[in-house]
Predict the 3D structure of the following.
Amino acid sequence: MSDFEARIEAERRRSAGSTPAARRPADWAAIAERVEALLTATAAEFDRRGIAALPVLGYPPPGVRSRLTGRRPTVVAHRRPVPGLFSLDHAGRPFLERDPFPARQIWLRTSHPGRARTLEAAVLRAGLTPDTLILDEGPPIPLDPDEAARNGRLGGRFDITADGTLLVYPAADAPPIPLVEALTAAVTGGGGTHP
């Protein structure tokens, strides 16, 4: 079992028997740290497998519904990060699986300077400029149920267990899985990007 597989298994064990914490106040700082740790682990696994994709934390503008919380952030709260997926398609074109953004916006929206530099380098390697639009295309990532119903792609909802594990429900009748596993499946399963 690889380190990454061991981490996924640990996430499963953490969530076993836990009660969702939807009714208690969320510790947003802890949630952000948890997501960042999972995305970092996913990025490392992508590198190990040679997958041309990088999970990122983005900061949506006010009024855009968060895929992590399902809420529309206020002007103050919009600095809370939400997960997204940056990748390169088979033609080497970058995309962010959300609304189209210029590449420069993606660099500014990432949560860590090192991640921003990595994304910038990937865009430049693809022969693009900072003003190139990142297309809304590519493999699916977990979406809210309404959006999934509209476009027929992978859908689900996010949840937080009592011990802080971040989960996503990939389908209404499917059990929850760790967020890191869902992000990995987004680029290694059907419709994923491969080198």
